[in-house]
Amino acid sequence: MSMAKGSNLQVPITALRVELGRRSGPGVPDADASALLLVSGRVRTDADLVFYNQPVHPSGAVRHEGKQDLGGHVTDTLLVDLTRVEPEVETVVLAASADGGTFGQVPGLYIRVLDARQGTEVARFDPAATVETAFVLGEFYRRQGAWKFRAVGQGYSSGLEGLATDYGITVDEPQHAAPPPPPPAAPAAPTTPVRLTKVTLTKQAPSVSLAKQGGTSGAMRVNLNWQVRGQYSGGGREQGRAVPRHADLDLDLCALYELSDGSKGVVQALGNAFGSLHRPPYIHLDGDDRTGALDTGENLTVNLDHKDRFRRILVFVTIYEGARSFADLHATVTLQPQHGVPVEFFLDECTVPSTVCALALITNTGGDLVVQREARYLVPERGVSPQRTVDRAYGWGMNWTPGRK
Questions:
Q1: What CATH architecture is 2-172?
Q2: I want to staple 318 with a disulfide (CB 3.0 to 4.6 A). Which of 79, 94, 348, 386 is the partner?
Q3: What is the Cα 215 distance to its own chain's centre?
Q4: Where is each TerD domain found (predicted)?
Q5: Are 237 and 248 in contact (CB under 8 A)?
Q6: How many Å apart are CA 33 and CA 13, to the nearest integer?
Q7: The domain 207-394 belongs to what CATH superfamily?
Q8: What is the model's pTM?
């Protein structure tokens, strides 16, 4: 249902998928979806902001699911389960921020609300934009025991930072002096303010220095999450989250490594080669996930306290079972240093019969780790394993033997 600015309608009290959509193209700014949970028009703590750096609300009511690029149509989605919104929360604001320009430069901007279980459209709003760098596109609000959705369309010229600050979010601004502590009667502030920055790697800008972004120590999580085209079945649910189709799909996140002493190896679920975080190779595979969910997914952790021990790390993904290629699988890769900004990128659509994809190459350059977006689909020759295929493509020179989980 297409809505005019200011109009409202009642929505089902269920899990709803909120989709921020746009068209991509040269020079088009990125756009990011976010949500704020409000009591009397303000957040209670900084945890009430859900976005790319803080993807899950403590209540589980709102989850940021990440982006997909399907042939030039980009969507960034939130899953809102109204049954899990805490009773004191009156409003869930649905916002967007532009990165690298204004919303007047973003073609085809819209917000859609869908029933997450059925996939049917509940509401759609296409705002008119000019110089705005942030938008309150819509909001869910309580009215007489029911939930309604309102098409808002309120623009900001101060980006996500200005929008978030207006609602009471404490923004991390290391270049300024720290603000004075609140008076004793005020609620306790979170220990760490919200960090609103990120780095998105693209074909045009494929690499980034971790040191320049603050990622020089601590643990760095490498997360892979994915969705299957068609998004959701109408069947099962788990903890308020829609379960993706092809739940038997098993993607394995892996890493080839070469250390400064010349030793080489692989971290992967196959053969239970999960690695170690506090001894060589200082890389650990957290588990083996089959859902693709953003808050779980497949995760590697790299110990940046030993960054000088790394010569290079190649992060890649293989299909273990459940699909013959990466076609129709749309994935997001996020590298989250403990003390730096997140680095993210998206996989292009796969058009070849590939069962292995090189994701990112991390190289030690003069003591700094540089992340290079690869997003390179490889097609194994007949009888050649995905691991051996990626080894040959990047010249790792290892000997491989058959293995299983």
A1: Sandwich (2.60)
A2: 386
A3: 18
A4: 2-167
A5: no
A6: 21
A7: sav2460 like domains (2.60.60.30)
A8: 0.63
